[in-house]
Write a structure and sequence with these properties.
Length: 227
């Protein structure tokens, strides 16, 4: 992490800033500005960029998959916006190399992945403020959305739901057995999934695993309307 020559970063991003101060903030970790205003680091821009990424991704998926149900779109959206995926694209662009950090910053692989993902979102927010939604959308489509292959396998519903909860700061899903019916050789399980005290979905299956997966899939269809 060596600082950020503006022209080199702009070349990597494919975008030129009218207000370079926004790019400077997007590439400044809070450890570098410790003791000063939180607005001097990328955290506020990351907050905005997260919302822009969410909106653009949803619209993109609605257009790309016009026949797919909501549950499928939610799972694919979660895969795109998950921190692991954003970190991969942030590292691919080399953004972590340009972040200003303080002397006490933990430069472990995990910390660098986190900063690569966070800075990518901050840059989306910075582009949005510097220009408009169209500019941010163009960057996101070029660098993230169009590089996300629909041939890549989607995570299972339980993994998607757990990732969603971790990203949103929610309690992890709690799967509870509602009932077990049928004969011992051919049982039917009904399982509900609870998040922060609210039942979000219920699933039925011939095994507990299948019922949990069905419950998670239903929860993904409901959660953003209920939480």
């Amino acid at each position: 992490m060596t600082g950020h020559p503006v022209s080199e970063v702009e070349r990597i991003l494919g975008y030129s800033f009218s207000n370079p101060d926004l790019l400077d903030k997007a590439l400044t970790h809070s450890s570098f500005t410790e003791g000063s205003c939180c607005g001097d680091s990328y955290e506020r821009l990351e907050f905005l960029g997260d919302a822009v990424l969410e909106l653009v991704t949803r619209e993109y998926l609605m257009t790309e998959y016009p026949q797919e149900p909501e549950g499928y779109l939610t799972r694919r959206k979660i895969k795109i916006v998950m921190k692991q995926n954003l970190a991969r694209h942030g590292r691919r662009l080399g953004l972590n190399r340009f972040v200003q950090v303080g002397s006490g910053f933990d430069a472990s692989d995990g910390a660098i992945d986190t900063i690569a993902a966070d800075v990518l979102e901050a840059i989306v927010g910075a582009i949005y403020l510097d220009s408009d939604l169209g500019a941010a959308e163009g960057f996101l489509k070029r660098e993230i959305l169009q590089r996300s292959s629909d041939s890549d396998p989607l995570p299972d519903a339980r993994s998607c739901l757990q990732e969603y909860c971790q990203t949103k700061g929610l309690a992890l899903p709690d799967y509870r057995l509602v009932s077990r019916t049928g004969p011992d050789h051919n049982p039917v399980f009904t399982i509900s999934v609870i998040i922060d005290g609210t039942e979000i979905g219920t699933g039925i299956g011939r095994t507990r695993k299948a019922a949990r997966e069905a419950a998670a899939a239903r929860a993904l269809e409901n959660i953003e309307r209920m939480v």
